């Protein structure tokens, strides 16, 4: 049960991220002692005839920015209160110790620099910022109201839709960091193919529009490549409900979308880590697809841990994927609409995915192990030390459960009935989830508290901190 190695230099990336933002911003000089250049962009008071290298001489437009050649260590600072119309494509690259940084400057009372793109054509897919270079940071920006695939668009296909994303990380982009941004009403929040991408601390919310008529709903974070990490993000209200929704297979209908998705079977994928995220009112936490333009990709070794999900449809629909670790999540399934796939819908034969130390609370008779939506599959999941509780209705275990050493009973959350934030799902002192977990190699809980605090780890995403 020891954790499989996650081959990503995340710790170094995070250290570098905070190191970069600890550099004092210059008051007048834009060229640092190491010859890093800072460019200032102000859509209201800027002028593209300026040199852009001081706050007093900012540039105005993305068109001018596109003419600049960015070098390792350079920064592009967008004035708070500014508005920009994308796409902005960054082709230049930083280096391991000298990232190119795109972020905000100005009065913190003013709104973050805002980016949108209502256009969708063959070479412009509604992206606001598209990264083609490596070692780039995008942080503290605001993205909103990006385009869906227009009705009647002739080149509709999986490949077309895979080009979408308010922030898009291309296959050529390695070691990029997308952190601390706000994304509102964008049909795809962040789409990443780039190996070793870190997506951290973003607030993605409130999109109830179709991505493409009438097959797909909105997606918060979408992975098309492997060796990636998404952590400490909040994804709220990403779903669309409409009876016209029908997938390309001809099945389903009525609702679609979700917080996370992994697909594009052209590429095998491994070592994607999704942890310490909070999702609410999305059309499912995670879906991993099995076929699109190709079928039966090799998907394996995904880490899904210490997340909190209070969503519709499913916690995980793993149509394809083996040897994944789905542990220490707090999963609430009390919301139903036109489509419902239970809690764990795992459809691969002999995939041996690990499902341990989770808290699963259901209502409305929602089944827990709804393997393959009724298909005759034998995933052979490794199921141990999970807590099960029906807050209303009947506890329906489903095809595979409950596994070894189950715990039954009310987990005693701090505030279940009127929950408004992730903290509401922390545990009370007399919770039956305390000290009931397996040692799985995790050292920090959802709140970055040390695991274990008692004799054994607690179940779910929070480790209770008793005196």
Could you describe the 3D structure shown?
Strand 1, helix 2 (62-65) and strand 2 (75-79) form a beta-alpha-beta unit. The chain has one domain: Pectate Lyase C-like. It has 467 residues and is mainly β. Helices cover 4% and strands 30% of the residues. The protein is globular. The chain has three helices and 41 strands. Mean pLDDT is 90; it is low at 1-33.
Question: Summarize this, please?
Answer:
4% of the residues lie in helices and 30% in strands. The protein has 3 helices and 41 strands.
CATH fold type: Pectate Lyase C-like
- Quick one: CATH class? Mainly Beta
Q: Could you say which overall geometry the principal axes of the C-alpha atoms support?
A: globular
Q: State the helix count.
A: 3
Q: CA-to-CA gap between the ends?
A: 29 Å
Whole-angstrom Rg: 22 Å
Spatial strand sequence of the major β-sheet: 1-2-5-10-13-16-19-25-29-32-35-38
Strand content: 25-35%
Weakly predicted, low-confidence segments? 1-33
SS-derived structural category: mainly beta
């Amino acid at each position: 049960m020891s954790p499989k190695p996650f081959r990503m230099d995340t710790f170094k990336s995070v250290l570098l991220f905070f190191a970069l933002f600890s550099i004092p911003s210059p008051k007048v000089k834009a060229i640092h002692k190491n010859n890093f250049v800072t460019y200032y962009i102000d859509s209201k008071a800027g002028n593209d005839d300026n040199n852009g290298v001081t706050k007093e001489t900012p540039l105005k437009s993305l068109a001018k920015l596109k003419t600049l050649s960015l070098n390792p260590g350079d920064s592009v600072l967008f004035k708070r209160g500014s508005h920009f119309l994308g796409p902005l494509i960054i082709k230049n690259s930083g280096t391991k110790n000298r990232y190119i940084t795109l972020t905000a400057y100005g009065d913190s009372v003013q709104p973050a620099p805002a980016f949108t793109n209502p256009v969708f054509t063959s070479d412009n897919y509604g992206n606001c910022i598209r990264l083609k270079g490596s070692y780039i940071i995008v942080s503290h920006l605001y993205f909103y109201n990006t385009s869906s695939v227009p009705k009647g668009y002739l080149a509709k296909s999986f490949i077309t839709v895979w080009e979408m994303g308010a922030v898009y990380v291309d296959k050529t982009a390695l070691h990029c960091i997308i952190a601390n941004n706000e994304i509102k009403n964008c049909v795809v929040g962040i789409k990443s193919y780039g190996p070793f991408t870190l997506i951290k601390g973003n607030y993605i919310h409130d999109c109830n529009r179709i991505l493409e008529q009438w097959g797909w709903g909105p997606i918060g974070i979408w992975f098309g490549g492997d060796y990636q990490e998404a952590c400490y993000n909040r994804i709220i209200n990403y779903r669309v409900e409409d009876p016209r929704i029908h997938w390309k297979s001809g099945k389903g209908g009525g609702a679609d979308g979700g917080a996370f998705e992994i697909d594009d079977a052209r590429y095998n994928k491994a070592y994607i880590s999704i942890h310490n995220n909070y999702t609410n009112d999305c059309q499912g936490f995670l879906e991993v697809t099995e076929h699109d333009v190709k079928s039966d990709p090799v998907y394996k070794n995904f880490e899904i841990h210490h997340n909190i999900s209070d969503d519709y449809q499913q916690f995980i629909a793993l149509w394809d994927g083996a040897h994944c670790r789905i542990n220490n999540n707090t999963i609430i399934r009390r919301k139903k609409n036109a489509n419902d796939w239970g809690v764990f819908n795992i459809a691969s034969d002999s995939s041996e995915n690990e499902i341990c130390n989770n808290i699963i609370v259901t209502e409305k008779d929602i089944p827990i192990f709804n393997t393959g939506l009724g298909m005759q599959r034998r995933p052979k999941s490794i199921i141990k030390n999970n807590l099960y509780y029906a807050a209303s209705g009947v506890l329906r275990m489903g095809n595979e459960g409950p596994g070894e050493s189950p715990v039954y009973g009310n987990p005693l959350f701090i505030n279940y009935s009127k929950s408004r934030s992730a903290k509401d799902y922390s545990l009370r002192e007399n919770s039956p989830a305390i000290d009931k977990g397996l040692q799985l190699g995790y050292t920090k809980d959802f709140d970055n508290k040390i695991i274990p605090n008692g004799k054994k780890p607690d179940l779910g995403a929070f480790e209770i901190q008793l005196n």
